[in-house]
Design brief:
The structure is a homodimer.
Chain A (H helix, E strand, L loop, with lengths): L3 H13 L8 H8 L3 H13 L3 E2 L7 E2 L1 H23 L5 H11 L5 H11 L24 E2 L8 E7 L4 H9 L7 E7 L6 E5 L3 E5 L1 H4 L2 E5 L2
Antiparallel strand pairs in A: 1-2, 3-8, 4-5, 4-8, 5-6, 6-7
Helix pairs in contact in A: 1-4, 2-3, 4-5, 4-6
The first copy, chain A, binds a DNA duplex (30 and 30 nucleotides) through helix 3.
Chain lengths: ~220, ~220
DNA sequence: ATAATAAGTTAGATTGATCTAAATTATAAT
DNA sequence: ATTATAATTTAGATCAATCTAACTTATTAT
């Protein structure tokens, strides 16, 4: 239905909106690398189609339909990245560029098959949730453990890397998914983190490891 | 470099040209499902870019550069079809539509990786040759099954037609590329062929079908 | 050989996505 | 409160890809 250009607008609206789901048109235009008037006229078009809430001089937001459309595009993008890494052996640095193009392929079967081959992942290795085939997002947005502060209590929810060595490393420290962790201290020099879990177990984790551990923050 | 539209023109010029590498502009426009004037103006553009030989009222042909460009696009298309069938489990009938879109992805690494994962195939699921990463086609001399004699043992290597019905027909008889076939008998009246394959499977194939099956003769 | 038909070309319009320049409205600063 | 600045919108142009209508050239049939 939507052109690749329209899809890019919806995707950016979705991912770059603030906590209220809103974004200014100029900021949007910068993300999309087009001029403000260009974004303005495209937004009018999307508003016409019932995908974007638009009133002159006000902030933009997606309608319910717009959000659903956006979720489908994000699904296609994230599944593609996941597939390129897991099934084709690309590094995470390389996949974005390719996924930016493949996300515009119009073929539900193609993406559903990727999903199946990947085992229906709910989160990509960046910790971003992958919408399911109905456009529903079940996972929360995860953050890297390395981005947490001292005192944060979090739940280990996903891994940004699942190489055998890394899994062994985690095993040796009894680190498992769904485990609650507390950041006790961070070494300023190298960002090593002192983590407490399982009643009273304490470990020092390297910055490299913390970068690959995706966690959900406690309230 | 080339837009998806330009790529489609080059690909069609390459695949639909006659034995002399020529095609009429109207015929081209029909394959591309655009009006003749549309094709005319695009051909002028491609001629300007040095990709197509064009003189008013004459037949069209690709220049050397145009052929090379076309070969790259065909490479992308056929590798994609191959990948979809071999690595993602799609049926032959389904892959064309998806490959029509993926062939326009601009990422040599992506296609080279597919090529590698597939083991550098020289022929796609429909049996058409796949140009290598330099645009070179390792040509094969195939003969029609209908031109074979009783007692010939051959390998099914390509299809001269890949309509959905034909692919379904072949599927229903478990006829796949790379299968070894033996011509058991030929009916003098209608040239129907009795073919043995897969240990002891025997089928009678119509002259029409045998005409579309391209095979490599055993030495 | 000439007329009829088919193929190819030109002219001019349209649509989607983009731009720059200029005008308007909102926000921030003194 | 007024002014300066920033954000947004309007106006009008451009470019690629497409169309239809009309015209020209080539081919075919009588």
């Amino acid at each position: 239905m939507a052109s690749p250009t329209e899809e890019n607008y919806l995707k950016t609206l979705f991912t770059k909106a603030d906590k209220n789901g809103e974004i200014a048109i100029t900021e949007l235009s910068q993300y999309l690398k087009v001029s403000a008037p260009t974004a303005n006229s495209m937004i009018k078009n999307l508003s016409q189609q019932g995908l974007v809430n638009y009133e002159k001089y006000k902030l933009l937001s997606l309608t319910a339909r717009g959000k659903k459309e956006a979720a489908f595009i994000i699904r296609k993008h994230r599944l593609t990245e996941m597939y390129l890494v897991e099934k084709m052996g690309f590094g995470w640095e390389m996949v974005h560029e390719i996924a930016e193009q493949i996300e515009h392929i119009d073929s539900p079967r193609f993406f559903d098959r990727m999903d199946e081959l990947l085992g229906y992942p709910k989160v990509d290795p960046h910790g971003s949730p992958i919408p399911d085939k109905n456009g529903k997002i079940t996972a929360k947005t995860l953050v890297k453990l390395s981005d947490c502060k001292v005192g944060d209590t979090v739940t280990l929810s996903a891994l940004a890397n699942s190489s055998e060595e890394f899994l062994k490393y985690l095993n040796s420290k009894q680190l498992q998914l769904e485990l609650k962790l507390r950041v006790e201290a961070i070494e300023p020099f190298d960002q090593n983190m002192k983590i407490k879990y399982l009643r009273n177990r304490v470990e020092i984790l390297s910055q490299m490891a913390c970068n690959k551990l995706l966690v959900e923050k406690q309230l």
